[in-house]
Design a protein that fits this description.
Blueprint (H helix, E strand, L loop, with lengths): L2 H14 L5 E12 L9 E16 L5 E3 L4 E3 L10 H12 L8 E6 L9 H17 L5 H16 L6 H8 L4 E6 L4 E6 L7 E7 L7 H19 L17 H25 L3 H17 L6 H12 L5 E4 L6 E7 L3 H14 L6 E5 L6 E2 L2
Parallel strand pairs: 3-5
Antiparallel strand pairs: 1-2, 1-12, 2-5, 2-6, 3-4, 6-7, 8-10, 8-11, 9-10
Helix pairs in contact: 2-3, 2-4, 3-4, 3-5, 4-5, 6-7, 7-8, 9-10
Bound molecules: alpha-D-galactopyranose.
The site of alpha-D-galactopyranose (GLA) has 10 residues, from α5.
Length: 370
């Protein structure tokens, strides 16, 4: 059992006075490339990280308990707390016709909160897997991911795409996950960074993503307008030559989506050929497109990407929705500390918040603990 799973199990025992029936856990994610494409029916390529949320569950009364917040909450109504994620998953299951019944659960996690590393999808995915096992539904990872997205959209009230839930449930260690967000087909692509002597350095800029919801919804609706103007169902169906029929923000946002989808497919080919140089160049191009056309970067994210470039990193880009949050860089294993040192200094000089750093290799998706 992983440490975090042990923590959830221990909290369950302490709170409810008996062993849980099972413990499930699910990871956060970084997206390697394919940003703001999921809600445009496009392609994404995330991988799971070595930070997880664990859910220890069993039958009985007692509701929900968070070992991290040392706080109990009833199953019941939405209250805009952490408990809305497990509640939302149970709600989505019931809504889809699956009889969940009474359960109780203790949660523990080490995915940084509110940083854009998908701590919320990790709670949802771990809860979904736990309830599926507890109730014997036998749903697939894909089914569970769709239910988690339903929980996020319909219960929590955040209008996110499908990427984070897919990544948390379906990623495998040592691979990235190519998802076609239209067909919902997903395929693992080998990403043996360790063999290539590389790792993913993550810089959490600690910038409050306060405007994230507004900005995110605004980008979504501009994309929908652009698709309508082109007479296509979604920007997935737009080609480069269609773009000349657009102007203003509709043009720049659509140009990002169309070029980003092409970059994801090229990036997958690069990975299959073990060509990390090309893969890295596509990451830089993705960042430039998010900065200039999609306008979701920040001075902090740009500064990290430029530092990584100066450092000789094969690739770097912002990851997740943007508007703050995290950026990633491909770096030689163990060198995150070096970039981190330089980055802290530059951020300090520019009066930015002190960033946090992590180093990851592609980790396993949701699993039951043994
Ligand atoms: C957030 C959302 C995802 C996706 C990304 C942008 O992480 O939760 O669904 O839209 O932003 O790529």
């Amino acid at each position: 059992m992983r440490e975090i799973e042990e923590k959830a199990r221990g909290a369950y025992v302490e709170r409810f006075g008996e062993e849980p029936q099972l413990v499930a856990s699910a990871p956060g994610r970084v997206n390697l490339i394919g940003e703001h494409t999921d809600y445009n029916d496009g392609f994404v390529l995330p991988c799971a990280i070595g930070r997880r949320v664990a859910v220890a569950a069993g039958r009985g009364e007692g509701g929900l308990y968070s070992a991290d917040f040392e706080e109990a909450r009833p199953l019941g109504e939405k209250d805009s707390s952490w408990a809305d994620y497990p509640r939302g998953v149970a709600w989505a299951m019931v809504e889809a016709g699956h009889e969940v019944g009474a359960f109780r659960a203790a949660l523990a996690g080490n995915v940084p909160l509110g940083s854009g590393l998908s701590s919320s999808a990790a709670i949802e995915a771990a809860t979904a897997l736990a309830l599926d096992e507890l109730c014997g539904f036998g749903l697939t990872g894909k089914d569970l991911a769709v239910l988690c997205q339903r929980a996020e959209n319909g219960f929590v009230g955040v209008n996110s795409g499908i990427m984070d839930q897919y990544a948390s449930l379906l990623c495998e260690a040592g691979t990235a996950l190519l998802v076609d967000c239209r067909s919902l087909e997903a395929e693992s692509v080998p990403l043996d960074l360790e063999a290539a002597g590389l790792a993913l350095a993550v810089c959490d800029t600690r910038v409050e993503r306060g405007l994230a919801d507004t900005g995110y919804n605004d980008r979504r609706s501009t994309c929908e307008r652009a698709a309508r103007a082109l007479g296509v169902e979604s920007l997935r169906d737009a080609a480069e030559e269609d773009l000349e029929r657009l102007s203003g923000e509709e043009l720049s946002r659509a140009r990002h989506v169309v070029s980003e989808n092409a970059r994801v497919l090229e990036a997958v080919e690069a990975l299959r050929a073990g060509d990390f140089e090309l893969f890295g160049r596509l990451m830089y191009a993705s960042h430039a497109s998010l900065r200039d056309d999609y306008e979701v970067s920040t001075p902090e994210l740009d500064a990290f990407v430029e530092l990584a470039r100066g450092f000789g990193a094969p690739g770097a880009r912002l990851t997740g929705a943007g508007f703050g949050g995290c950026a990633i860089a491909l770096v030689p294993t163990g060198e995150t500390g070096q970039i981190a040192k330089e980055c802290r200094q530059v951020f300090d000089e520019r009066g930015f918040e002190e960033p946090a750093f992590y180093e990851f290799v592609p980790a396993a998706g949701a699993e039951l603990a043994r």
